[in-house]
Fold each of these.
Amino acid sequence: MHARHLLLACLNLGFLFAAAPALAAETPAELVERSVAAVRRDPEQSRALAEQALALLAARPDADLQVRAHVLLCDFHSERDRDAAQRHAQEARRQLPAARRQGLQAALLVCEGEMLEQAGDNAQAMPLHEQAVAAAEAARDDEMLAGALFARGYLRGVVGEFALGLTDLRRAYTLYERLAMPAHLDTTTNAIAILYNRMGDHAQARHYHEASLKMQRAQGLRREQAVTLHNLGRVHEALAQWDDAQRAFDEVLVIGRELGYARAQAYALRGLASVANARNRPDEALRLLGEAQRRIAPDERLRAQILLQRGIALRELKRPGEASAALREALAIFQRAEAAAETSLAHATLAQTLTDLGDWHGAHDEQVRFKQVSDRMLRRQLDERFATLKIEFDTAAKERENALLLRENAASERALAQERRAGRLQAVALALAALLAALLAALALRHRGTSRRMRFLAMTDELTGLPNRRHMLDRLSALLATPGSRCAVVIADLDHFKSINDRHGHLVGDDVLRAVAGALRAGARHPAILGRLGGEEFVAVLPDANVNEALQFGERLREAVATLDVAQWVPGRAITISVGATASTPGDDAGRMLQRADDALYAAKAAGRDRTVVAPADDEPALKAA
Ligand code: GH3
Ligand code: MG
Ligand code: MG
């Protein structure tokens, strides 16, 4: 009935579909390619090209190409010449073991299944389509798989397994989409529409057909338009939209004539006959059916469709005997093909015809069968609609789940990558931190050394290496701050030192200062602390010392300097120092002690130098010289 074969003509050659440019000297591969491309526009040319390719391949065998060409010819003949189709299928099967492309087996199985369908043997055809799907899946050949799924899905629709059929067709659709095969997408859309129509969901069917028709018109695909228009006509027929149905079938007829496409013409004429019957024009219907009959090739389903319409027309023409004969013949074919809708319609018409004949018993039987078949069909349609909804829901859920999984995978991969990156960064950061820590430690060490040195430098007199004035004042203050402690301070000043500088130069003066510092250091024994106050003045702090001890200490210093040999710097000259000393009093401070010692020193200078003078206690007015 439906333009199943028109669809299949486009379908099974999917693996070869590619528009090939016409070349001058063509290889078998190019011929096969062009043959595939021509399937849609010009089946006769397609056949001629496939035969040409086979002729060339006889001299230069190539199993893949030979199998392809034979499958092409199998497809071509399956609609026209069963024996020829059979021969090509056998030839393809013989050469298949030598072919490299494992998936080719699926295409062959599909054509073999198709031949059985053409013979009205759907029960035998189904296992072949199932094998085709399995073979394509095993070969991981998406193109072949799409073709096999298409064939199986279509047939499942025919036998009323709508939900499963829809699943197959949708899988085929997805594969064709992925393979970027728009023409096959279109064919699949058509098949989905046909299936909806069978399911009784005419609105969906019409929607799919119209979408597909629009695309085909835009691309100028005349042959495909004929197929779609015919199917659209069938939808209108089912919905009793007779004007629309007529318009569709008329156009199919026009295209069929334009393309010399006999099968399309036969289908269109059957459709127009159905419209004529609906409009109570049985004569016209019979005429149209007669024309259709003359055009058809071995297509049992179409023959049964024609017989059904003939039966309707003949009954209308009050020729119930002929009508019942036609209807019974149609019924047998429909029943074998498990075509529920047509079987049901044939039963109903036969019941009426038998009533006309006065065969009440037979009429009743047919009425009962009609009820059974139509009830079963309706139940099935309902069940399948539910199943379809469930599959749609499951598919949508699965897709969502897959999308979610994909997203999750992507996310966890991103997370892993980030973790790895973070890990690397962490390692780098750790290394940098360690390096930094080492640097800081080194810097800190150096800083500590530096600051210690700086501190040392800050507290040390550069010239002599003795503690400087600040250091000495700190030490003295610290001593004085200790409760109950006492100490003495001694200041020594070189006598007439300026004259050394003046006579021998400043550098010699420095040398002499260093030599004196050495002598003083030697003279000032522990626990005395010796430092340089500045210029040519030195100071000593004597912990736990009284005035007498300070005096003795001063004298020792003076002797140490006096015995110093400075001939190398200032030949013929002795160095002397004047010393001022003082002892601490309770509550004393560094400033006051230094001042007293300095006063004593001044007194020593004034008294003629080269001597030690002890400062009197605060209440003593005079200075005591040693
Ligand atoms: P008096 O006996 O009165 O102390 O006489 P004086 O010349 O030693 O004392 P005065 O205060 O007049 O001179 C001190 C000189 O010491 C002046 C200065 O040039 C010199 N002097 C101070 N510090 C240094 C120094 O670090 N190196 C050298 N070479 N000379 C210095
Ligand atoms: Mg001085
Ligand atoms: Mg001096």
Note: Residues 360-459 form the longest helix (100 residues).
Amino acid sequence: MRTEDPQLVRLADYRPPDFLIDRVALDIKLDQKKTRVTSRLSLRRNPIGRAGAPLLLDGDELLLLGVTLDGQPLDTSRYAVTPEKFTFAEPPEAPFELEIEIELDPSANTKLMGLYRSGSAYCTQCEAEGFRRITYFLDRPDILSVYTTRVQADRKEAPVLLSNGNPVEHGDIPNSSMHYAIWYDPFPKPCYLFALVGGDLGRIGDTFTTMSGRKVDLAIYVEHGNEPRAAYAMDALKRAMRWDETAYGREYDLDVFNIVAVSDFNMGAMENKGLNIFNDKYVLALPETATDADYAGIERVIAHEYLHNWTGNRITCRDWFQLCLKEGLTVFRDQEFTADQRSRAVQRIADVRTLRGQQFSEDAGPLAHSVRPDTYREINNFYTATVYEKGAELVRMLKVLVGEDTFARGIKLYFARCDGTAATVEDFLACFEVSSGRDLSHFALWYKQAGTPSVAIASTCDERAKTLTLEISQDTRPTPGQPDKKPLIVPLAIGLIGANGAALPLKAEVDAFDGATQSELSRGVLELTTARRHIVFREIPDRPVVSVLRGFSAPVQLVQSATDEDLVLQCACDSDRCARWQAAQSYATRLLVAAARQTPVGANQASIAAFGEALRQIVATSDDPPFTAQVLTLPSEADIAREIGENVDPDAVYLARQSLRADMGRALSRELTRLHRDLDQNAPYSPDARSAGRRALRNTALDLLAASDDAAGMRLAKAQFDAATNMTDRVAALGVLCLIEGEAREEALDDFYKRYAGDALVIDKWLTLQAIIPHAGTLDRVRRLMRSDAFSMGNPNRVRALIGAFAAGNQRQFNAPDGSGYEFIGECVLLLDPKNPQVAARLLSAFRTWRMMEPKRRRPAEATLQHIQAAQSLSPDVRDIADRSLA
Ligand code: BES
Ligand code: ZN
């Protein structure tokens, strides 16, 4: 990173603001092309700011109409203004009111940041720095203000007028077609949580009585006609509200809670105080239109945004470097919510899969950064898997380290101490230092140091002495800007499994040099704090299998010396289901890496057979369908590629995975056929975890059967596709058909399109299934689809469903050796960047793995990145990703 870079923001440069804004009164007159925004700011000098400092307000593409100071027009000689900055060189020393009038064109806002139009509605998105596109402001999260918002619009065009907080008043404007609504939010908040919606929307309502007996009015607003599709989201909302009360003692604090679903949205959803705005993908579901995964996604995102009310809104972030403080913690909370609503083990496995697939990949490439970065050029590019997923892992790890009760006391202290403030990671950790009495400074290194530590475990057994010695070591490879890594504190949940599969008691030298502590042994959690450690376990009858990282107790890459037989035993007998799943994944990874590296196949046949037999046993004995489905799902191509680490040939990875899936399908064909037949329920669809888990296993069975036998697979999939009574089964069948070249595929695709044309969220699935077809010809298909009615470059969901899926979900064609995939994504990025830089930058981050490809692919990937870098007038978003990818 260039040091003279004017864009570069540094954590070390943080200063408290020079001014504070206690109150904000907004008056917004909505108009499609000429919206008027008047903001009255109650300003005063910050006692801890710089004396005599000028007032500098942020703007972004703003057009100023006028300014008054304490009710009097401010002479133009006293301020300077550009679309990006309002400078008031000599503001009064005493508190003052500044009223600023702006004109906006919401229809021209294609960036979907600030005030924009989605369909026929007006809506806003302000996080991270969108409020400055609505009015000049101190657009930073440590400015907390109480907002009153008056919204006015044409009564017919926008009968619904919403903003944050509680409704105060609404009415008609006499002798006009206009009406207005006034909202008041008593909780001081940063401007990124401001929201406004106006439009002609359908509504479903409900109520929730909080634990102290207050009644809250709930509403979800959707496009007219979609009301029935919002029922599940409402149900999830009520469950999330109750859960935060029972699990954390956190009660909702306003009289109303509103959710609005819009179809044009850069992200998944946004936690604006009392007025969450959602991508409609995370609200709308009916059995005929949404899959089990969609239902689970809705439940999760609804909970996530609701849970932000305490972790994000009541306690917000001092600056954007602290993003993980709200996002990591809230992801942790939404994961726990889902675990409590569904199956804890299956949820943990799914979370680990996401962490590995997304965050480990990010950590292994040029975009690696720490959970709390210390510099950024474009904050939008730091809403990453590292901040979110690894950020959640750090909270979970903290819980493992201090224990459940101490963790609960720490978080309670956090709510008590930091409520109403803009806090830092240090403030958060300090609460756990108090509750645990431990010094957490070593733990804090996890927030600063990027990269995935490798933890290696080697065990040796002394049969005569009846001891088992574990040699544990850790190592983290350099990441951009961090050449030297220090050892971290790594909690390793551990168990020993005897030859008969039973758990062995943990006994070791206690308190001796290098010994384990009594507390480590009784909790079954070893704390690795140095580069290496060895531990001697006593009274070991026979060589046991060592189960480490149970429950995935730390976000590390485990390097194990376990034999294939150990893994089979562990997969069958470990008391921890996450470890059982992990054992199967490790075994599969061994086979896949060997096959992709083309080590002689012969040597592998016995191993593959043993793996198949182990899986057969699991299938035969398991009474947990979703768990079984996870065990039967191989590591992704991206996971295998990362395991190989360098000179990756995605074709070889793909073929290795295909071939192992075919082997599995053959080895388990009787069991899979039976599962596919017996799990077929004629009961009406229900999205609950148990039913969804059965469908997951059934569809996994179908997928493996098809992998081993095209003809049989096609027959089963075709029958399932035609008979399906819900979207889960229909899409699963179509996905299988898509992998088999031929007429049947095209017929099914046409049939699906005709059936759901006009239902954009369903058609997105159709786009994605085609974008991820691993065969040659997909790029042409994607280009063709881009020209079809189903696609629009202006809608982020369409872009992600088609182009995003090709880049991130089709390893083989994106990384095609002729460079065509890279070039295509490069073109799309350049096409999209002027319209929507945020979405363009995300698309470009698919190149984060380019350096681990073999040279034949690396060259065209680099050429595309350089081509983008050389383009004129790139957005800061895309430039930042291109520069860091090439650095
Ligand atoms: N605060 C974010 C939304 C956001 C992200 C705003 C990036 C601005 C820039 C919200 O709470 C969030 O994290 N949403 C996630 C979904 C969530 C379940 C992880 C999203 O939008 O992807
Ligand atoms: Zn969030």
Note: The pocket of BES (ligand 1) is lined by residues 127-128, 267-271, 300-301, 304-305, 308, 327, 331, 383, 388 (CB under 6 Å).
